[in-house]
Amino acid sequence: MEKPFEPYQHYQLIEQAIRFIETNVQRQPDLEEIASAVGLSEYHFQRIFTRWAGISPKRFMQFLTREHAKELLNQSENLLTTTHQVGLSSLGRLHDLFVTTEAVTPGEYKSQGAGVTIRYGIHPTPFGKCLIGMTERGICHLGFVDGNEGKAVDHLVEQWQQADMIEDYRATAPLVNRIFLDPKPDSPLNLHLRGTNFQIKVWEALLNIPSGSVTTYTQIATQIGNPRAVRAVGSAVGDNPIAYLIPCHRVIRKNGEFGNYLYGSARKKAILAREMSTSDS
User: Fold this and answer.
1) pTM higher than 0.90, yes or no?
2) Residues assigned a catalytic role
3) Topology (CATH level 3) of domain 6-62
């Protein structure tokens, strides 16, 4: 029987491989060289990679090219226009997950979480460890953890400075399982968002980007009715408090480059390529 931590352990190898490919992109290293760079035989690497991604490393890496990203942007532009027209501003779909949002009131925003209790926990996922936080009204934080777990918790505290924090692994584990391993389309995940009105608009626009698609900051600015606010949109995307569920990783540059990501460019590429491969299969 596969151990529950195995997807997390596999992701470390996937990230090492992607970083190696990023560094040597001009040479286009073959599978044997990539496997050697992560300390595995070609056979063992391909076996682990295919088990994690569901497709071969060669096919997976094709999703990471700038050419493929540009093609996907062209396809996504029409899809996002259609999605926006049907009015899904507060309801998004991620794989088979349905997500609903509830924003704090202006008074609650100013209180910085006073009177709110947040239960949090750190868990393994297919993309490395994550920290998830939840209130009575829904998920209020989701971020990936690299290195110091204490710093990740500090970041959560900064977002909700006056809230009561309770470490509760048992309470948060079922949520992580639903998000990454066992989605249930008949039961929506509730998100409890703390942000300005502008940030909420941007985050809800991100929820309209279907899995396997990408968009640009310019397209998001246009979608929320403020086409000149591209830089402000970029800031709001960067401040997204609920990674993965609010898919800021699906925003890339107009030239097809994947761009920056709070949790590392390799992780962004891993998430995107896995989504693209799933949608393409």
Assistant:
1) no
2) 248
3) Arc Repressor Mutant, subunit A (1.10.10)
